[in-house]
Design brief:
The complex is a heterotrimer.
Chain A lengths: L1 H9 L1 H20 L6 H26 L7 H15 L4 H27 L5 H19 L9 H8 L1 E2 L3 E2 H19 L1 H11 L1 H6 L4 H27 L6 H17 L11 H20 L7 H16 L1 H4 L10
Antiparallel strand pairs in A: 1-2
Helix pairs in contact in A: 2-13, 3-11, 3-12, 3-13, 4-5, 4-6, 4-11, 4-12, 5-6, 5-11, 7-11, 8-9, 9-11, 12-13, 13-14
Chain B lengths: L1 H13 L2 H5 L2 H20 L6 H26 L7 H16 L2 H29 L4 H20 L10 H8 L8 H19 L1 H11 L1 H6 L4 H27 L11 H10 L11 H20 L4 H19 L7
Helix pairs in contact in B: 3-14, 4-9, 4-12, 4-13, 4-14, 5-6, 5-7, 5-12, 6-7, 6-12, 8-12, 9-10, 10-12, 13-14, 14-15
Chain C lengths: L10 E10 L2 E11 L3 E6 L6 H8 L7 E6 L2 E3 L4 H6 L2 E4 L11 H5 L6 E2 L2 E2 L1 H14 L16 H14 L4 E5 L7 H16 L3 E5 L3 H7 L2 E6 L2 E7 L5 H9 L23 E8 L3 E8 L4 E5 L6 H8 L6 E7 L2 E3 L4 H5 L5 E4 L3 H5 L6 H5 L4 H4 E2 L2 E2 L1 H15 L15 H13 L5 E5 L7 H16 L3 E5 L3 H7 L2 E6 L2 E7 L5 H8 L12
Parallel strand pairs in C: 3-10, 3-11, 6-9, 9-10, 15-22, 15-23, 18-21, 21-22
Antiparallel strand pairs in C: 1-2, 1-4, 4-5, 7-8, 11-12, 13-14, 13-16, 16-17, 19-20, 23-24
Helix pairs in contact in C: 4-5, 14-15
The chains are: A mainly alpha, B mainly alpha, C alpha/beta.
Chain lengths: 326, 330, 515
């Protein structure tokens, strides 16, 4: 019986994110004219999955007590690259997909090297690398354009067996084959430890540098997946600064909503996914309520503000004020 | 090992007083400015002309005002991501109010700044009293501010133009040849230096940035200081927005977006630690000029936007590698 | 085994030197640690013990000298290399990762794995075994370390060290946070390990622990090994003399008890104070000029009581009175203002008392900013004057007022903390174990200071983990156990025997094995 208690304690943040998402989606589906149908779920899934990938990327980095302000730009850059090379027959397309993901991973690796070996603070280092990645995107696509292998795109953005959105399947696959192995590995534990207490992790002889590097590299890879999917949705590549910026900032919001601690050491990419969907659903929820689109950004902001305040209510109940200060 | 540090010590001892006490990061930043000017002058002799330099300082003033507010928040160990839309709100509200006749023109600037203060207080309460991480509170208030402005303008560009007073402040020249904007920045800078070095508030800010725990146990009202700092940052952002509106003659959607990342970069390149507790305002001034010069040189070279972004990013990384590195673990 | 039959040493350190900037932490130090022995290392703080241990553990590298394991010369470039040689350490600063579980932490340096993935079941089994070996079966392997109290965390540290099946185990003040029951268990574990042939190095300030455990003792002073001898072959005062190099007598200034004015309310009083379940029904009163001590084992609520009085805790029951009038203190800001004029010398000077990178000057005036800054603007002349007074009063030794306070020695740092508060001329002074980790010379100066402050009329509450201090400095001592006051000792009643007995909550007549 007590084993469950410990498991619940461990997953606290993720479960909160899940609860938040479920509540919002239930309200949305209940008030949607079409109700809880496969179509509605499909559209919602597709809209949310892009942010989900970027949020997962951010979660990986945040766990090491870092932050990646370039995820949105990696997202944009990989989108532009994909619009050039994920085309043609099966083999070139497959190679193109591999290349796009590798570029994403490379961007993440560069971030990691600067933070770990350059000993630069993540926030400023990733601001700078974000600018570089965006510049590269702009070189590739000064104007929106390009194309993508449409068979692949439709397959991955369509539905399996007519019911299950393929994008969700892809997301689940990533969780199963990227996140879970990472979490259970020694390198993944080192990443968590580095975020929780780098000093203690060092004294215990953990491979901190490898752990952090893996987190940044995988983060880039996941952001790259997001960019790939964006290409599948839009069939084009576009170096949209505003979009990249928005994805970066909302990935941070999603990560917080999903119960990942910005201080590091705690949280799960799964939580980030729920957080991303919750964040996306607010917009859709307002649409379902027939709210004037003019008011949507404001209400989204208010909902976000309330959601993050709730998360901190626990700290208010603290009985020793010294606990406020880490 | 000790020999080289001894010789370094003796060189320092021979420098004039103020250089000896200065922060090496600040000196490096000013050095980089000189280097950039030199490089630019190789490209075109216009670079060292007083007209050009004054123009650069004028453009830098807007970033400078915003970066001053950002610096106070960063010194505490926090961050303010609400700058873009607080700037825009300040600008739009100032312009809106200005439309109300004579009274309007007078209260335009205070109203704009007050909007900034309001958002700053919102951020401050969230960070200091609700203990929400500053990154996320300010992010959320940025979205709220954006939402408010979208509702207000109906999604279109605002039609109100900036009041003449503000336009004069941003583009006029009390001293012929010396743009007002530079004087405004100078005044703000004087206030900042005084605030940070000669007041109890400034001392408390550095103390809290170093250890909020120790500051709290010393009986300093840490929560009030943090809240005030965010209010200050909001006020300066909004003021920067108002000035910018004066420069462009009106406010515009997303006018504050290009100022967020450069203001953070300017503060950090000036030697202020992103973790808080350390940094000199002179460094922030240097950082602002550095970033402005860099962007301007790239634009004069007529480098396409793509190239500009890449060079901008690489230059920042190189400079950080020079003096922004954390000490090694062992 | 007699002392004469000492087996050949497992670890030998020869000619070890280590310098930090201009400070010599170790100078040509040597020590030999034999297996199957408990080797105690004594010395004042700054004597080099911690640095020596860090070198053995591979955390820092020596500037000179060599280390041998058995007959082989070794150099450790990281803690992992030391661990590979079978050296396990339990440090003062806990090395646990707060957000990971107990089991995760126990196997952290070498988790059982397959193809790079951690085998959680095997990990769980290893953890349970290690916890049992350390006598800590009550700790659940899946509990998050950050949810555990300090004493449990220290037990996890010990389990973690044992899990690596070491050849040598080093404990650096490892029992400081433990409850009495835990201390007894740990001693039993250590004695068993000794029999199993481990080489054990034990650092502690507590004489009675050393008396019970050690086979060999080494005294360090000023970075040098001044003497190594079999345990029990030197008296306590001889040992202390080796540590400080001067006569161990008259450490404490004489106490002249102020006559209490009849009818005058105590300067500070609390009635039935309760908080969470850590403080229960505590009543104490401090008169003007009185020094009231708090005794008892660590973790019984003494530190929390001081924090409660200073306004740091929320949700307290009971009442606090100053000068006979009930007050509600909600923050330290309130506590330090007149007429309350309270001061708290906190537990950890490095993280709670000082801002290490800031200058001595800035730290000194930090608690008195409202006094040196009329209307918010700092009056530099006034600040300088107050600072000069304090530096003179406390004889603070510093390279300059603009040096970072982190460069000062521990004793001088503590003086800065105290000076910072004395600037406000407090009437009520709360001290949270102020002489921990301070050299003997500075301790003497602090005792004199406390006496002077009491004689000037301040009411002082003094928590100390050192019995001698409580006996020497206090007019009355309240011994806490499990959050309650179990005994109040006055004047002549205050003795080591009485203090220890009440600390363990036993009758004075029937003491256990603890002394």
């Amino acid at each position: 019986m007590s084993e469950w208690r410990y498991w619940l304690n461990e997953q606290r943040g993720t479960l909160t994110g899940l609860a938040l998402f479920v509540v919002m989606f239930a309200v949305y589906a209940a008030n949607h004219p079409a109700g809880f149908t496969a179509n509605v779920v499909h559209t919602a899934a597709n809209k949310g999955v892009l942010l989900a990938f970027v949020a997962m990327a951010q979660a990986l980095v945040v766990i090491t007590a870092g932050i990646d302000l370039s995820v949105g730009m990696i997202f944009v850059l990989t989108n532009c690259i994909a619009s050039w090379i994920v085309v043609g027959a099966a083999v070139p397309t497959a190679l193109g997909v591999a290349a796009v993901l590798m570029v994403g991973a490379l961007c993440g690796a560069i971030n990691g090297l600067l933070v770990i070996y350059g000993r630069l603070q993540p926030i400023v280092a990733t601001i700078a690398t974000g600018a570089v990645y965006f510049g590269l995107a702009l070189l590739l696509r000064p104007f929106p354009g390009g194309s993508v292998n449409e068979t692949l795109a439709d397959a991955l953005t369509g539905r399996l067996f007519g019911v299950v959105p393929s994008s969700l399947v892809a997301l689940t696959a990533v969780v199963l084959f990227v996140w879970l192995p990472f979490k259970k590995s020694i390198v993944g534990r080192a990443a968590f430890a580095a975020g929780s207490s780098e000093q203690a992790a060092f004294m215990s002889g953990m491979p901190i540098r490898r752990g952090k590097f893996a987190a940044y590299l995988l983060g880039g890879l996941l952001a790259g997946m997001g960019g790939l999917f964006l290409t599948f949705f839009t069939y084009t590549g576009e170096a949209a600064y505003a979009s990249g910026n928005a994805y970066t900032l909302w990935s941070i919001a999603a990560v917080v909503l999903g119960g990942v601690s910005l201080y590091g050491g705690r949280g799960s990419a799964v939580g980030a996914i729920f957080g991303a969907f919750a964040a996306r659903t607010t917009g859709d929820m307002l649409f379902a309520f027939d709210v004037d689109p003019l008011w949507q950004p404001l209400l989204q902001g208010i909902v976000l503000m309330i959601a993050v305040s709730i998360g901190s209510l626990a700290l208010l109940r603290v009985r020793n004020r010294l606990d406020w200060f880490q | 090992m000790s020999e080289t540090s001894e010789s370094r010590v003796s060189i320092r001892a021979r420098l004039p007083g103020f250089l000896r006490r200065a922060d090496p990061a600040v000196i490096t930043a000013f050095g980089c400015i000189l280097l950039l000017l030199l490089l630019g002058s190789l490209y075109s002799s216009n670079f060292l002309s007083p007209d050009y330099l004054l123009q650069q300082l004028k453009v830098a003033s807007f970033l400078g005002v915003v970066a001053a507010g950002m610096m106070v928040v960063i010194l505490l160990g926090h961050i303010d991501l609400s700058i873009p839309w607080v700037m825009t709100t300040g600008a739009m509200m100032a312009c809106a109010v200005a439309g109300f006749g004579n009274m309007g023109a007078v209260v335009a600037i205070p109203v704009g700044v007050l909007c900034g203060v309001a958002f700053g207080l919102l951020n401050g309460v969230g960070v200091a009293y609700l203990r929400i991480p500053s990154m996320i509170v300010t992010l959320a208030s940025n979205v709220v501010a954006q939402g408010l402005m979208v509702v207000y303008t109906g999604g279109f560009s605002p039609q109100d133009s900036a009041p003449p007073g503000v336009r004069w402040l941003a583009t006029g020249a009390v001293v012929p040849g010396l743009p007002n904007a530079i004087l405004v920045w100078f005044a703000v800078s004087l206030a900042m230096v005084f605030l940070l070095t000669r007041t109890a508030f400034g001392r408390a800010v550095y103390g809290i940035g170093n250890s909020e725990r120790a500051a709290f146990l010393s009986g300093v009202g840490t929560r009030r200081v943090v809240m005030t700092a965010f209010a200050f940052s909001g006020a300066l952002s909004a003021f920067g927005g108002v000035l910018l509106a004066g420069y462009a003659s009106k406010a515009a959607q997303a006018m504050g977006d290009p100022y967020l990342l450069p203001s953070i970069a300017a503060v950090v390149l000036g030697g202020t630690s992103i973790l808080g507790g350390r940094g000199s305002y002179y460094g922030t001034v240097a950082g602002v000029i550095l970033i402005t010069l860099l962007q301007s040189i790239l634009s004069v070279m007529q480098m396409p936007e793509a190239g500009r972004q890449i060079v901008y990013g690489i230059v920042i990384i190189v400079m950080l590698l020079l003096y922004g590195r954390a000490p090694p673990n062992r | 085994m007699t002392a004469a039959e000492t087996p050949p040493p497992l670890i030998r350190m020869e000619g070890i030197s280590k310098r930090y900037g201009g400070v010599r932490a170790l100078e040509n130090a040597h020590v030999e640690v034999a297996p199957g022995r408990i080797h105690a290392i004594l010395g004042e703080n700054g004597a080099g013990k911690s640095t020596l241990i860090k070198i053995i553990a591979g955390v820092v590298a020596p500037d000179e000298g060599r280390m041998l394991i058995g007959d082989r010369e070794v150099t450790f470039r990281s803690p992992a290399e030391a661990a590979a040689e079978g050296i396990a350490c339990v440090f003062q600063e806990l090395s646990l990762i707060p957000d990971l579980s107990v089991a995760d932490n126990i196997v952290i340096s070498n988790p059982p794995h397959r193809f790079g993935m951690i085998d959680r079941r095997a990990q769980r089994a290893l953890a349970e075994e290690a916890l049992a070996r350390a006598g800590a079966e009550d700790i659940h392997p899946r509990a998050a370390v950050k949810d555990l109290p300090l004493s449990r965390r220290q037990m996890v540290e010990i389990a973690k060290a044992l899990a690596s099946k070491p050849r040598a185990l080093i404990l650096d003040e490892a029992t400081s946070a433990l409850t009495a029951g835990d201390v007894a268990k740990v001693f039993a574990v250590l004695k068993r390990l000794r029999q199993e042939g481990l080489a054990l190095v034990y650092i502690s300030h507590r004489m009675h622990e050393i008396v019970e455990l050690a086979d060999t003792c080494t005294v360090f002073r000023n970075g040098r090994n001044v003497a190594t001898f079999p345990a029990g072959s030197r008296s306590n005062s001889e040992i202390v003399q080796m540590m400080i190099g001067r006569e161990y007598s008259n450490v404490f200034p004489a106490r002249h008890r102020r006559p209490v004015e009849a009818g005058k309310a105590p300067v500070l009083e609390c009635r039935n104070l309760g908080w969470s379940d850590r403080l229960r029904d505590i009543s104490l009163s401090v008169g003007e000029g009185e020094v009231v001590g708090l005794g008892g084992l660590e973790g019984q609520g003494q530190r929390l009581l001081l924090l409660a009085l200073f306004g740091v805790l929320r949700g307290m029951s009971g009442s606090v009175l100053v000068d006979g009038r009930p007050v509600t203190i909600n923050t330290p800001t309130q506590a330090r203002k007149p007429p309350l004029s309270m001061a708290l010398i906190p537990e950890d000077r490095k993280t709670e008392g000082l801002m290490l990178p800031m200058t001595v000057r800035e730290n000194l005036s930090f608690a008195a900013l409202d006094q040196v800054a009329g209307g918010g603007i700092i009056d530099r002349k006034k600040e300088q004057q107050l600072i000069d007074d304090m530096v003179r009063l406390l004889e603070i030794k510093t390279a300059g007022l603009d040096a970072p306070v982190g460069a000062l020695s521990g004793g001088n740092q503590q003086k800065v903390v105290i000076a910072k508060w004395l600037m406000r001329k407090p009437r009520i002074i709360l001290l949270n174990d102020p002489t921990r980790g301070i050299d003997v010379g500075t301790k003497q100066e602090l005792y004199q200071l406390l006496r002077r402050l009491a004689e000037a009329g301040a009411g002082i509450v003094f928590y100390s983990t050192d019995y001698d201090e409580l006996i020497g400095c206090c007019d009355r001592v309240l011994v806490l156990y499990d959050g309650r006051v179990v005994r109040e000792l006055k004047d002549g009643e205050i003795s080591e025997r009485a203090l220890i007995a009440s600390a363990l909550n036993v009758d004075e007549g029937q003491e256990g094995t603890a002394a």
